[in-house]
Give the backbone structure.
Amino acid sequence: MIGLQITGSTKSISKFVTMYGQAQIPRQRLPLSKKNKKWREECVEAFINLSKFGMTERRTYLKSLYDYYNGVIDEQDYRYVLKPYGKTRSNFPSKLRNYPIIKPIIDLLLGEKAKRPLNYTVTVKNADAISLKEDEKNKKLIEQASKIFQDALAGEEPDPKKPPKVMQDFERNYKDRRAIKGQAAINYIMQNEEMYHKFQKGFFHYLIAGEVYSHKGVRRKEPFYEILNPLDIDYDKDPDLEFVEDGDWAMIRKYAHASSVIDIFGEFLTDEQILELENPQKASADSYLLYRAESTGSDENIYRNRLVECITVYWKSRKRIGFLTYVDPLTGEPEEVEVEEGFRLPAEARAGGAKVRYEWVNEVWEGTRIDGRFYININPIANQRTSLDNPSVCKLPINGRKYSDINSDNISLVSLGIPFQLNYNIFKYRMELAIARSKDIIAQFDINMIPKKWDMDKFMYFVEGTGIAWVDYNKEGIQLSPQHQSVLDMSIKTISQYLQLLESIMQEWEKISGVNRQRQGGIGPYEGKAASQQAIVQSSHITEDLFRKFARFEQRELQGLLDYSKEAWLTGKKAMYVMPDQTIEMIDIESLEHMESEYGIFVSDSGRDQDKLDQAKALSQSMIQNGTPASAVMDLFDTENYAGIKDKIKQAEDAAARLAEEQQKTQQIQAQEATKQKQMELEQERLEADKDRQVEIEKALIAAESRDQTDKLKLDLEKMLKDFELKQKDIALKERALDVEGDTEPNGV
């Protein structure tokens, strides 16, 4: 491992080495003052020598995988067919062609990846996250208690179901303020860096080469991200290493024209070095010749189209840092801060009990070799990804992973398909050859039977054109015999067998790849819908591991970009960006809070999320039937993740619940108003009845003045009293009916 200390003389740095096979890596546990120019260049050169860039086998193998995907035929793979026993076949009626069976499978998986949702959630892992949540929860409880008290003062009955519901909504929807900011940050980076497109490009390499690599960091105060070509990457081959960024070293090799090299590295090159790069006649072409041999096998136009080799190395060195421990005079509590290795503790601080302890921690360095001669920019990288809890934990800016290299050579989906592609092409070639040899059933004639003065071409013309063979039985020397006419069967009976073999190869390849006929859209004549669906589900189980492993790579990448954003936005960040659903969002990052936040990113299972997403969208019809506004339903189709759809459905349900509650309140108010109106009408009837009774009494008193009318008066009074009693009973019956009607109104109104 880098950083192992080798004892010995200190006169020459080059004597302190750790052995990596044949490569000698300079000692890394050195103070910065001793990491001079010679040490730095020796480190870059040692790691380059440690790499496999000087070997063509790996590059040739990886390039062949891309050739197989693109249908490029290497006749060396078919030499035992085209050159049996070492003999070259010429003028054969068939030609070896490529009939792609690998590419459709790869393209289908690429299409599925493009449609899969990428659901990511940002959380904070700071120690105070739980306490902040509890504080917010207590605020909500106080707000609810205050609301209940105010409702009681207003004479309203408190709703016992509301406080628990508010707490449930809080637990479901609560998110740390810093997590919200972090979510906005990664959303912005996703759009600004076109991450969906770049992840798709990475998945393409992952399927073909079984490897995916990336490079990320900070450039011009913004996080940057790029997918790298697997042919141009080499890194630490730790057997237990899953992700490249956790290894000890990694490097990128690129070839570019001198103008591009100057554009990229111009600030680190001297004027003399730039002149040499611009004048290829004075420069060595060894690296270019090697590159040409690996790529095309040709070395023509060396200087006219010359490419310059640039290798950038990243490795983990060691640095010495100090931790100053002292007692805070204001609080009386011990405090600890990090200091540089050259820090001098003042005597008065030492007398006060302060002390410094030193540790060796990891530190990522970088360095570039151009054209095999120029060593530039060999320094610790400006943006170190370290842990707040452990300063020795750091990440390389290059990351990547392989699909399956545990205790074995790595494989890819294309590498698994090569034997099937070879056999398929061979059997197609042999079938074409068999078809060309097939002459069906032909008749045999004695050549002496050809008519006089006819040549062979004229005879064959009549045979082909008319189906009649003209013969001259009177020709001199002809002996008539049945043997002069016979039939020769030259038809090929093996074509059907070739077709069966081709179908068998396709079935085996589909079984190995996990992409069966049903998944590609093919349905057998006797297959039902249920059987087809079951076949598709079984097929997805085989390929799910591909997507799962790549999702872990995506999670690492998003985490790294969010970490680098802290260094990029040291002065804060304000910007607007457009989300995939065309909504405009704003990012407003405060630098100090962003720097002190320890983010974590969770990427959910995209396969399961896709199933749930489809099922959720399938609810749209029932939502419309249940009265959900069409605009709310349409919002579902603009949402690309299950969590978003779930939230929108919850919003629609809450809106529907609020509408129903408002309608119920309106009905209650209307019922109360109707009851009041009826009560007013009854009261008016009672008043009118009292008025009528008073009038009748006055009339009776006037009439009673006459003694002659006494008896009549008595009768009239009795009749009046009976009428009044009947009216009172009628009003009482109406009041009882009104009371019964009121009892049946909603909520007992």
User: Anything to note?
Assistant: Confidence is low (pLDDT under 50) at residues 1-21, 282-304. Residues 642-704 form the longest helix (63 residues). The two ends are 82 Å apart (CA to CA). The CA atoms of residues 671 and 744 lie 10 Å apart.
